[in-house]
Every structure is written in structure tokens, then in C-alpha cells.
Amino acid sequence: MPRSVKVHPDRKEEILSAIQRNGFLPQGYLAASLGVSRSTVSNFVNSKPVSISKFEEICETLGLDKRQITQPIDREYNPVSEKSSLRVNFSASQVCELLLRLAELHLELNNPTLALDYCNKALAIATELDIPLAAKCQALQEKLLSELE
Predict the structure, then answer these.
(1) The pTM is what?
(2) What tens digit of pLDDT does each residue of 48-84 get?
(3) In CATH, what number does 4-74 get?
(4) How far apart are the C-alpha atoms of 66 and 56, rounded to whole Å?
(5) Cα torsion angle, 96, 97, 100, 106, sign
(6) Other beta carbons within 10 Å of 104
């Protein structure tokens, strides 16, 4: 049975954020608060092995999940942090629906030129991928073209 454990390297930002959030900057404050050496805290932060008991104590103090912190971050569902960007995956059908809705909104806002641009993009996707929204896109396109004449 292992006597030490280490944080996954993907989790360094999360750890540094927790240290700051909990008011333990510099890291020596965390070490002093726990009665451990600064090197133990440094090892923890830098994904080097620390004893299981110290690992658990640091995780508890920082409010970190001791099991999760040893695993790589699932990039698909990474929680948004201050330095990361939100990534959302849409299907082609959803993109088509969004573009069509933007076209409808711009038509309502009396901006038929921009509405036509969004509509054309939606129609191109719907036609290329044989998405059922193609007919609705074509109808809106015809309406917009007649308004622009």
C-alpha cells in the first residue's frame, strides 16, 4: 500500500487558486497553519509525493477533493477558472438553429442585411448536412430577399 500520494500536474492552477482563496499566500502561511514544512507544501503544489496524512490534511484545509485532485482534469467538462476559457460543443443542427434564430432576431430589429447573412449561413449548413431546418431557412431567405429589394 502506498505511503505517499501526489496531486495530478493538471491541477496546479486549481491548487494555487484554493491557496489564494483561503488566504494562504505566501504558501509558508499554509505550512505554518498546518505545522508542516514549506517543502511539504511546495511538494504538494508541484505534484511531488507527500505523505497520505499530510496530503489529506492539506486538501481538507484548502477545501479540495482528495480523490479528484489526483486525477487529470477532464478537458471536456473543465470548470471555468479565471484563466481558462469556456468550451461548449454544439451539434451542427444546434448551430443551424442558433443562426436561424439570430436571423429572425435581426429581422425583428429591422436589420435585414445582417439577418440575411445569418440566414445564408444557416441555410448553407442545413443544406450541406441535410438538416430539416433547410426549408425554414429557405422561406426566411426568400422573405428577406423580397424586403431588401
Answers:
(1) 0.50
(2) 999 999 999 999 999 999 999 999 876 554 454 444 4
(3) 1.10.260.40
(4) 6
(5) negative
(6) 16
